[in-house]
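Hey, sorry to bother you again with one of my protein questions. A protein chain has come my way and I'm curious about its shape. It would help a lot if you went through both lines with me. I owe you a coffee for this, so here goes:
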Amino acid sequence: PLSPDLHPNLSTRERVELQTQGNACMTCHGIINPLGFTLEHFDAVGRYRQHDRGKPINAQGSYLTRDGREVSVVGARQLAEFLATSHEAHQAFVEQLFHQLTHQAVRAYGPNTLDSLCETFATRDFNIRELAVEIMAATALKSRDTTATTVPEPQPRSTR
């Protein structure tokens, strides 16, 4: 990161924009910056602020959905409200929780497992504890093909 002392007249947002404007940086920062800028009211240690380097905070940001729709949000509250109602965010949360609890990809349990868990999560008012139980049940009750792991019966030893 560029030191604030190198550009004393630039806000944090302006320094980030300056530092990440190159094509190589924008490969990732084109996604990161628009979301991160919505959190500009919070400094590096999480304190709320109205100004940065004497300039009013610009917390305007955006999110590009998977279907190509750009959603504009201003500030952390609007971002949280958008994410709380976003099926995309719910699906990502379910998928990440599944992976954290099982150390396996949800798709390893079939093409419909993620959708089923997302539906259950929504119908149970987004209760994370109940989702964790559902994930454990879905993985514990998964039938396995036992024919591939059949071990031959031991043969009696010769007593010569």
